[in-house]
Amino acid sequence: MTFDAPTIDYAGLSPIITMTAGLVLLVLVAVFDGVKRTAPAIALLTLATTAGLLIWQWDADTPLLNGSLQIDGLAVVFSLLVVISAAAAVLLTIGDPSEHQAGRPDFLALLMASVLGMVMLTMASNLITFFIALELFSIPLYALCGTNLRKRESLEAGLKYLIIGSVGSATLLYGMALIYGASAATDFTGIASGLTEGGLISDSLTLVGVGMIAVGLAFKISIAPFHQWTPDVYQGAPTPVTAFMSAATKLAAFAVFIRFFLVALEPMAAEWDVILAALATISILVGNVGAIAQSSLKRMLGYSGVAQAGYMLAGIVVATQQGVDALTFYLAAYLAMNMAAFAAIVIHERQSGFSDSIESLRGIGRSNPLVAWPLTIAMLALAGLPPTAGFIGKLYLFQALVEADWTWLGVMIAIGTMISLVYYMRVVATIWMSPASDASLQVPSGEPGVDLDSPRRWYLVLPAILGSAAAIFFGIIPQPLVEFAQHAGNALAALIS
Amino acid sequence: MLSAILWTPLAFGLISLLAPRRFAPWVAGTGTLITLVLAAIVAIGFDSSQGLQYVVDVTWIPGLGINYSLGIDGISVFLVLLTALAWVPAVAFTASRGTDRAGLFYFMLLAGQTATLGAFLAQDLLLFVLFFDLMIVPFYFLFGIWGSDREGVTAGSATVKMIVFTLIGSLLMLVGAVAVGVIAADGGQLTFNMAELAEKGLPSGSQNWIFWFFAAAFLVKMPAFPLHGWMPDAYRAAPLPALAVFSAVLSKVGAYGFLKVVLPIMPDAVELFQTTMLIIALGSIIYGSVMAFTKIDLRLILGFSSVAQLGFITLGIFALDSTGANGALLQMINHGLVVVPAFLIVALIAERTGSEDIGPMGGLAKKAPVFAVIFLIVTMGTLAIPGSANFIGEFYILNGVFNTDVAIAIIASSGVALAAFYALRMYQRTMHNPLPEGSDSREISVRDGLMIVPIVLIMIVLAFCPQIILGDTRDSVDATVAVSKEAAQ
Question: What is the tally of structural domains in chain A?
Answer without folding.
Answer: 1
